[in-house]
Amino acid sequence: MHDQSTELGAAPQLGEYLAWIEQMIRIEGALHAHLLVEVDFGELLAHQVALLDADPVLAGQYAADANTETQDIGAEFLGTTKLAGIVGVEQDHYSVGTMIEVPRGALTADEIAHTAEFFSFGTNDLTQTCLGMSRDDSGSFLPGYAESEIVKKNPFATVDQTGVGELMRIAIAKGQTTRPGIKLGICGEHGGEPDSVKFCHRLGLTYVSCSPFRVPVARLAAAQAAIEEKRKAAAKPAKKK
Hints:
Elements: H1 14-28, H2 30-40, H3 42-54, E1 61-64, H4 70-87, E2 95-100, H5 103-107, H6 109-112, E3 118-122, H7 123-131, H8 142-147, H9 164-178, E4 183-187, H10 194-203, E5 207-209, H11 215-235
Parallel strand pairs: 1-2, 2-3, 3-4, 4-5
Helix pairs in contact: 1-2, 2-3, 3-4, 10-11
């Protein structure tokens, strides 16, 4: 492990971080590298927490990329609360949660929810790890899969409701068992795709994080999903007393 700790408030060495991240992606792959960034460069966490005090607009949620092992999110939570205390940020001004991006994160969601205050489903990576497909290389094989009717829709464009969606259902059920009021959302390009947004609404997710240009589509799809839900509820016959 690299010792990159410095005093809180020191300017981050962005060039060093980026070079190290690129090296880790080449060696470890992108899925593993994003977790190592915060493990090996704890200073990043310090600066992220400091932003909570510096800009009220940014205060709110901090999502830790730590869902492969339950203790990862626990350590992240303790580190965040400790640093927040140093910079004077009250704990009721922010929440600490986790990205659910791998199957194990979904399957152990009940354990993770003891610490995580919200789940943000990172469906880009969750799709890769669930289906065993590389998103970056999908253009070379998905057209053939579609032609052979192996897949009906591009799973990196629309959430695979049968596989990835089932992992999301499991994570939600397990997480709510431990923390009934846990906040749920989606983070990724699926968050700007209408069918995926409507599916997430049916699961009970309440927020979307996606690319800026996808936000209008996401908001429209969320509104349509809410309207459809109300129409279905109104169309149900009243129960006889």
